[in-house]
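Design request, tokens follow.
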């Protein structure tokens, strides 16, 4: 009886194609023409940032300038390792979820 439940649990877990972590199938976003590709929400946010960054590096609108500034600051924080600090790190990661 327990082997059937274990097999079901193993089948229900899917892997994010970007980071390789295991998630429940319902937690992954599937690509329209390629349903075999599933991406977790964290990687989907990262992919959205990459797509925005590449879609207009010469764009001079205020939102584009702000996005580039946030991206530069994010890069500096990552290079300095500030995101790993015990108190500041969790705050920065929480803030990062709401930034473009």
């Amino acid at each position: 009886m327990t082997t059937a439940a274990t097999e079901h649990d193993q089948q229900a877990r899917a892997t994010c194609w970007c980071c390789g972590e295991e998630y429940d199938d319902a937690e992954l976003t599937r690509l329209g023409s390629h349903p075999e590709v599933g991406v977790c929400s964290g990687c989907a946010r990262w992919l959205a940032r990459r797509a925005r960054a590449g879609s207009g590096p010469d764009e001079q609108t205020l939102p584009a300038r702000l996005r580039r500034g946030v991206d530069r600051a994010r890069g500096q924080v990552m290079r300095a390792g500030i995101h790993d600090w015990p108190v500041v790190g969790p705050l920065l990661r929480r803030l990062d979820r709401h930034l473009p």
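Comment from the thread starter after seeing the answer: thanks! The chain has four helices and four strands.
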